[in-house]
Amino acid sequence: MPLESTWRNCAALANGKSKRALCGSRPCWLRADDRRIWGIPLPFSPQTAAACCFQRLIYHFPMKDPSIMHIDMNAFFASVEQRCNPALRGLPIAVIGSAGRTVVTTASYEARAFGVKTGMNKREARAACPGLIFVIGDNRKYIDASTRINAILKGFSPKVEAFSIDEAFVDLSGTAGLFGPGAVVAASIKERIREELGLTCSIGIAPNKLLAKLASDMQKPDGLVIIRQEDVAALLENLPASELCGIGPMLTRHLAGLGINTCGQLGRYPAGALRERFGMIGERLSLMGKGIDDSPVAFAHALDDAAKSVGHSTTLPADVSDKADIKRHLLKLSEMVGARSRRHGLAGAKVVLTVRYSDFYTFTRRKALPRPTNDTREIYGAACAIIDGLRLKAPVRLLGVSITDMAAGMAQLALFEGDMKRGRLMAALDSINMTFGSGRITWATLLEDEAADGFHKGVIAPSWRPSGVRMVDCK
Ligand SMILES: [Mg+2]
User: Fold this and answer.
1) How far apart are the C-alpha atoms of 83 and 403, rounded to whole Å?
2) Residue 294 banded pLDDT, cuts 50, 70, 90
3) Over the stretch 142-195, which tens digit does the pLDDT of each residue have?
4) Please, are residues 396 and 316 in contact by the beta-carbon 8 Å criterion?
5) Which domains, from first to last, does the chain contain?
6) Contact 143/466 with Cβ under 8 angstroms?
7) Which residues are catalytic?
8) CA 94 – ligand 1 centroid, Å
9) What's the mean pLDDT in 250-275?
């Protein structure tokens, strides 16, 4: 294998006895006594690497056999609750939100044995399992556990993507020299999560993210499944296409209409015809059927660069038809979107409003803005303009606000004195809320909500990230 040495934009980090070097997008792991990597002699000693810390000098070589790991916590919210309250261990429990009209967010494995599922309402869940114990979710516990799990994962690779609050991808390329093969890393991760948090997880290891996610789903709870490149074709041949992440019930039905039920059939279907039928995602579907996925593990800063949109949505405590009521929820969502975008230095040139009716019919409407913004009032203004222009056909169940067409790192130009003042006000508001907790200072219109329901109350969806910007359209 030819060694490709580069001497550019690199940083070397001393990591105890080992040196962890990050070069471009590829990590190399070195031990202090390493003279060779995979039998290949190094053109410098690790001491040189240490000495050159932050001096743009380290080694870069092509990675063989990239290994992507997907970690999925088992019944995360329920397991955390059982961990925190020993009286709940071994019992069927269901974690629910604090709002009156809530659904099961996570059921413990004991409850799942009775058929209790995520998304059931309380009545359905109780009918399935009369002895079911409902526990109101506590986001702080889940965020804390998720943060600690991510810290453990980052000890094994610098490339960790928090895919949701209870799932993460880890790029293990180049870590074998330090921690051994993927299976060994998986065992160490499982042991540390069990020891430090008392939780179990399922781990999948595969050549790419698509297959790693599939692998972690194949054995639950506490599973470990490794998919090797040579096994991919046989595995996918008869696997239902709906098992692949990103192929939901709707797409499954459309594919079935074309006579495509398995991944094998999907992979063999002419890519051109899929493109014609499904547009842009057609190409991707074809690759998915073949088990091909080249999306990188989007670790922290890469993720911020690649953020396509920033959004929040909420299921309303009760269906709402009154536009004034709807606007109060829109202000709350706009403030959440604005604050998160400002924290990441992002701004969007388009506001997208998502509306779901009580019959679950869902649609989005967009409005372009004269310039990219992260100003709560402008986002709210656009969302209101959209809602004012709509003739609502049914009561609204869910609302979502997001900004898209992002301009990263954009400090909005303050054209007028008023803009500058508002920018300063927003910065002060954000800094107080970040120090003392979300919603400590808020908009007067929202105050009557505060008494009934806190600003960020209600159990967060598992798709929510503990921190960072979510790539909403990375389906
Ligand atoms: Mg999970």
Assistant:
1) 38
2) confident
3) 989 999 999 999 999 988 988 888 999 999 988 888 888 888 899 999 999 999
4) yes
5) 1-62 (no CATH), 65-227 (3.30.70.270), 232-289 (1.10.150.20), 307-452 (3.30.1490.100)
6) yes
7) 167
8) 14
9) 94
